[in-house]
Write a structure and sequence with these properties.
With 434 residues, the chain is mainly alpha-helical. The protein contains 18 helices and no strands. It is 75% helix and 0% strand. Helix 2 packs antiparallel against helix 3, helix 2 packs across helix 10 and helix 5 runs parallel beside helix 8. The termini are far apart.
Length: 434
């Protein structure tokens, strides 16, 4: 994550905060904040899930790092506390806490939130204890260091040879490198596992890229430090290369956390809307049963609208059960197979033919109110023994309404199946007469 960088500033204005020079800091901050907002409902709802808590802590710390690493905020922090460069150990501490959260997240992911084994608890204690000690040492080293001149953009290289400050800068970089390296390797191994859905795999790949770029950030910073120690000048690596690299890394990390949750949510919504749309032909047909429709509610969710449409269609089909001709359905099924359709499409086409025939028959012989009420009393309740043979067929039909609705989009195929089924009926009649 970014370290303290910058030149002297005395006052902050909106231009200071959002000026062009600070775009590498504010863009990742905004993206990380969006990721945190998206994740927050799940974190609050499932607070006992340690992996979700770790995700929330990681995103919050990442946002804080970029916020307090803005040069204008660095100057403000130093001025408020009254100690030159005091923002350095503060930002380094945030980065170290971010590293610890990364490792805790990996432990939670690897072992599962319910894992309370001694090994898991020991690993978590090691991470918390080790990185807490690093934070304490950072502040002790800063207290011992002599850093009177404020540096807002090049503190890492400017004080690279200063006793105690040199060790502090190296310590936070090593802690960050170790955490990112372990996290990257474990994520890379996880991506190769079987059984991951598209969105989770994509999110893990994005996280892998983000942590790999964090390693590039560490390499740039360390190279600039080593150059200073050996009497060379590679300050541009620390000042001009590392900040934009880590900004891009933060965006990839934020996308990595957003993609599995947001992608699955949008994909689920799309599937619900598609199912609602696919049921439209059968819904329009069944509306003619009693000239009713699904009540429209402006604030109804897509899931509720789909459920209401499915319920309406099944209720309407139950009213047609008395007129359902199972012999016609079987002949239509055989006819569809003869026309070259596969078993599943043939089943849907045959059901469409039988439903249209049942609807026409019902219009010719309207049912009494008592019969209609009986059929509406509950699914698959048929008191009349004459309709007992259609019970199994209707049970299948009520489960396959989407396939039947899609078949209704092809009236030419339905008519071809109906015509061939009628020919087979005529042929059977002639054979019986002979």
């Amino acid at each position: 994550m970014p370290a303290t960088t910058g030149g002297a500033m005395s006052a902050m204005s909106p231009a200071d905060f959002f000026g062009e020079l600070y775009i590498p800091f504010w863009i990742p901050t905004a993206v990380l904040t969006v990721a945190l907002v998206i994740k927050l409902p799940s974190i609050v709802k499932l607070w006992r899930d340690s992996s979700l808590r770790a995700v929330g802590g990681l995103l919050l710390l990442a946002c804080s790092v970029f916020l307090f690493a803005v040069p204008s905020v660095i100057a403000w922090t130093n001025r408020v506390v009254g100690v030159p460069n005091v923002s350095a150990p503060w930002v380094y501490s945030l980065i170290t806490a971010f590293c610890a959260t990364c490792l805790l997240l990996i432990v939670a992911w690897r072992n599962g939130p319910a894992d309370r084994s001694p090994t898991t608890r020991r690993a978590k204690r090691w991470v918390v204890t080790g990185y807490s000690a690093v934070i304490v040492v950072l502040w002790v080293l800063f207290t011992l260091a002599d850093v009177p001149r404020e540096r807002l953009r090049d503190l890492d290289t400017y004080y690279a040879t200063t006793p105690f400050m040199r060790e502090e800068i190296l310590l936070y970089l090593v802690a960050h490198t170790v955490a990112c390296l372990i996290t990257y390797r474990l994520i890379r191994n996880w991506v190769r596992a079987d059984g991951l859905d598209l969105w989770l795999r994509g999110g893990l790949k994005s996280l892998g890229i983000g942590y790999a770029l964090n390693l590039v950030y560490d390499a740039s910073k360390l190279a600039a430090l080593v150059a200073r120690w050996t009497g060379h000048d590679l300050d541009w690596l620390s000042t001009h290369v590392a900040p934009p690299v880590v900004a891009v890394a933060a965006i990839f990390i934020a996308v990595g956390f957003i993609l599995p949750h947001g992608g699955q949510y949008l994909h689920g919504r799309w599937r619900v809307r598609e199912s609602h749309r696919r049921l439209r032909p059968l819904y329009l047909l069944t509306r003619t049963v009693d000239d009713s429709r699904v009540p429209f509610t402006l604030r109804a969710t897509p899931e509720l609208r789909l459920t209401r449409r499915e319920t309406f269609i099944r209720d309407a089909l139950l009213q047609l059960a008395r007129h359902f001709d199972e012999d016609l359905r079987r002949r239509a099924y055989d006819a569809a197979l003869d026309l070259g359709h596969g078993p599943t499409p043939a089943k849907a086409l045959a059901a469409a033919v039988a439903i249209q025939d049942a609807l026409a028959e019902r219009k010719r012989t309207p049912e009494s109110d008592a019969t209609t009420a009986t059929l509406r009393a509950g699914p698959l309740v048929f008191p009349d023994l004459r309709i007992a043979p259609v019970r199994t067929a209707f049970a299948d039909l009520l489960q396959d309404i989407e396939a039947v609705s899609l078949a209704l989009r092809h009236p030419a195929e339905i008519e071809a199946v109906r015509a061939l089924a009628a020919v087979s009926t005529a042929d059977s009649g002639v054979s019986a007469h002979e």
